[in-house]
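User: For a benchmark we're assembling, each entry needs the component sequences followed by a predicted structure for the full assembly. Here are entry 17's components. Please fill in the structure.
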Amino acid sequence: MTAPPLTPAPQAAPMDPGSAAPARGNRGLGRVRTALTRPTTLLAAGVLVILAILVVSPLLGLLNTTLAADSRSAWTDVFASRMSANLLWRPLGNSLLMGTATAVLSTLVGGFLAWVVVMTRLPGRAVLGVLATIPFALPSFALALAWDAVFRNDLIGGSTGILMNMGVPVPDWLAWGPVPVAVTLTAHYFSLSFMLIAAALASVNGDLLEAAEMTGASRFRVARDIALPVVAPAVVSGALLAFAEGVSNFVTPALLGLPVRFHTLSTRLYGAITTGDVARGYVLSLVLIVVAALVMFASSRAGGRRSFATITGKGGRSRAVDLGGWSWPVGALAWAVILCTTILPGIVLVLSSLVRRTNDFSSGFTLHYWIGGSDPALAQGQRGILTNPQILDATWNTVLLGVSVAIGAGVLGLLISYVLTRSRGPRWLLGSMSAVSFVPFLIPGIALGAAFIAQFGAPVGPFPSLYGTFAILVLAGIAATIPFSVRAATSALSQVSKDVEESAVMAGAGLFRRLGAIIAPLTARGLFTGGVLVFVQMVRDLSLVVLLATPAMPVLAVLTYQYSSENFTQLANAVTVVIAVISVAATILARRLEGAAQPWSASR
Amino acid sequence: MPRNRLLALAALPLVVILAACGGGTPTTDDVQAAATPHPLDTAGHDELVEQATEEGQVTVYSFTSRIAQVEEAFEAQYPDIDFIGHDISSSEQITRLQSEVEAGTPSADVAYISDAPVVITELLESGVLSNYVPQRVADSVPQEYQEPLLANRLSTKILMYNEEAHPDGSPIENLWQLTEDEWNGRVVMVDPSVRGDYLDLMTEFVRQSDALAQAYEEHFGSPIELSDGVENAGEQFITDLYANGLVLVDDTDNVNAAVGATDQENPPVGFTSYSDRRDNEEEGWALQASLGTTPSVGITFPAYIGMVKDAENPAAARLAADFLMGDDTPTGGPGYEPFYVPGDYPVRTDMEMPQDAAPLDELGAWDIDPQETASIRGDVADFLLTL
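Assistant: Structure for entry 17:
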């Protein structure tokens, strides 16, 4: 494939043959008419309807609930009452702080590792690349628990962590509150940045770098002026995802923050919902959505709308950077990060499923919770998970759900991001579409689940009730994971040069032909990355499925939750290990497939 | 701005359509009288069994996994009726039942559920759940556990201490000790703004203000003086408790481990479930109830059995409720056996209390009144948010 010989100025390039200017007389009407029949417009309209059903209507449902006569006071409670400081303002400040810290630290750590894995010749970088994707697949409590195991001091009582046991005093600020919360959230979510940035870096056109170096540009200038702009969309996407995750995570601030009364919006929100004040919880989640939308808007302003197209259908693989004397310190740093975020929490997770007594690593180990039969003395006679037939069922359901949602969300994400980046619709429309595609992240999963039951639980027109079906799980899963798939597809798509597509237009290829034959294969790597994110998210996420998964159709995350709410901690952790293994296996498998889907990087 | 008007015009139909589609979360708009009795409420046992056998199955949402044992026992007694027990936490049951009933697709017949004040306000008043008292137990269950919903047992949130560190009994004789320097930073509980049962405990402190005022005077020798913005002795106690470095955690297991872990020099005390004491051996804890604490050690609260609105199997639902109340033996037989544990209390006066735990009257816990608790619970939650 070669670039078209004649490239029109990209901004003026007609995307569809039908959009040629009509006669002057009824110009406006004619334009509308042609616009309506353009495939891109149809695609945009279709995507809009899907987004309206999957995202906007649950959101309106939330809003509706808070506006009902008996819950309207929730707004004044939150914004203008004596509780406001503790209910809204302080938690909001903490949430923004945690979101920002997570975004910045995740980008630094993830970007560094992506650079090491993709751009250097450091020995063992392939292994690093696999390990760096694992923290996202680990449950956030595993990382919080790992922190606890090391840094716990005597604030709460009970046993203390490793440092205290060795006689090293641990101050409260290091054991509890914002510092450990931000660090453990980063340890969890830098994988997002890593995966997105690594995918972008891998597609940086080697010719560009070489050309720059041949003109005498310093290595720093090459990095700043060529590599960085190319990966910028991935950096921003990763940072936004990390921000949203950091803002909405509940387990970590609950575990490490509450002892020093460190509340975030998410702990306040979950608290309000679980203590029966649903309207107040929804108001808080709407605040969360608005604030995050503002952050996103600001970041897209700051980022501008520059084009970073690098996949032009030609160009070779990038040369690796020779680190020289720096390879030792860089390698040591990279491995230290992986050790602390992947290996250590992984070990803690596995061990915590093997300990005789809950989270007490000195109480001796047993395989009972994995392979034991029913023993009334342990966990009220619950069987070990591998001898429990329910687990096999749940595993199958979980994998099937993850795959279905990953495929569904992947296709939808590609279509949405195509409309966002390639159609030239009105800016406000594209802007709100982009914002809407980010929102599901911020709707608390349990609220999204409830909204889906309300929406699809009863028959609508010719459609039967979906309650209790696998379909409703998949639909809700797609809605919840749109942010991942759209972000991943956008950063992948922004690298595909419009030239390539235009040459196909000239060759007479229609929209769907282009999507299938050009866009999809060229963005395959990014799409796979997104697909893995979605899969992992579905496999381990609980809050969404907890209402939608009927008990007759168990999924693993719900089983973990049931075990842990019954205080069968080891069993819960054992199931979590299974979840982590599935997620990691999916990640590794997808990396294999990626290679096959990218013929141009076969020389790898 | 024309563009804005255009946007509004474009967005309007979409909003209307979506609103008409009923996209939304459950509301309690359709509040209705739940008092209409069901024809089966007065049916005799044999009639229930006959109709239930025709129905063939019954689905029970339960806030405890012990429902699995009930399932086995039930099917042993009624082999022709399939008992499907699901373990779902109370707050999830509330959301789920509301959504299901609203959508007209209830998938459960019976709810076995805790979180009494929310159940009363969110499920009972809106008609999602209704009450059924089997005639067989009408005489042996005290009135307060028949109305507004039938309960089969009481659970606890009480003050517990480490009996290894304090072999001579609880170090806390008066709750106000918890607000003094000696216990600064050494009282642990789950954050009541995150967990409903602990919010009930805080609410009870406020409801029992008079008792707390009296206990204050007994302890300090002078009448209680209220701080600014504090309206009663209960709020004062909560304020002082929070100001004295109260440690809040996210989960009862964390309270148990902090208070109960052995080999501690100076363990904290904390509010948790009496029945968790049964895990002492397995987990290496030394938890013990702080019996004799003035004015009270904590609260007891009911586990409710409710009939789900428009359920498919109304007769089997009533049979299951009957089964959950236990048979006529002193320990309630196989149906009640999973719940017959020290630290939980059967409500039936004709059953024996489980061994190895203080009897209910010796425990001296305040028994919450779910309706009254519900009426001020929101205010207490608000008060906590100002601390």
